[in-house]
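Supplementary Methods, section 5.1.

A reviewer requested that the exact input to the structure prediction be made available. We therefore reproduce it here, unchanged from the version used in the analyses.
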Amino acid sequence: MEQSKGPRRLSGDELAVWLAHLQEADPSADAAPIEAADVRIIHDSSIQDGMAVRSLGQATASRQLAYATAVGDIALSIVSFPRQGQVEIHGQFLEYLDAQGGQVQARLIRDGATAQSAEADDLGEFSFAAVPIGQYRLLLKVAQVSILIPMLDLAA
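The structure derived from this sequence is encoded token-by-token as follows.
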């Protein structure tokens, strides 16, 4: 399998949708600019042989993804339920020591609209349940930094 070359650049329309989601997430954002962190994938279990896990009893598959940013790392575990045509996403934002801190807000975006949202707990953990398969974007907001994972291809 071909290894990912990292996130692609957003088109003008996609950037406009992304900025609209940022404004919706924090309407007071005009008081302080929000900077977008560069995101690079550092691990994808689906492209590394032997890393995917299958459970015959539950007929599920699991995929692990890890991303690095300037302010922290993001770990995602995606559990597929093929018979239901949906997935669960369990994530964690691992903040670097010198980062600003603050509550982590996570939003799953599909077709320009928020499909689900969640707030992380004290350990930076968040989850989305019963997510229909499809293509999504994940937007995390930490303090004044917004992190966009431009494409999550969720398959059963």
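Residues 76 and 91 are 4 Å apart (CA to CA). These observations are discussed further in the main text.
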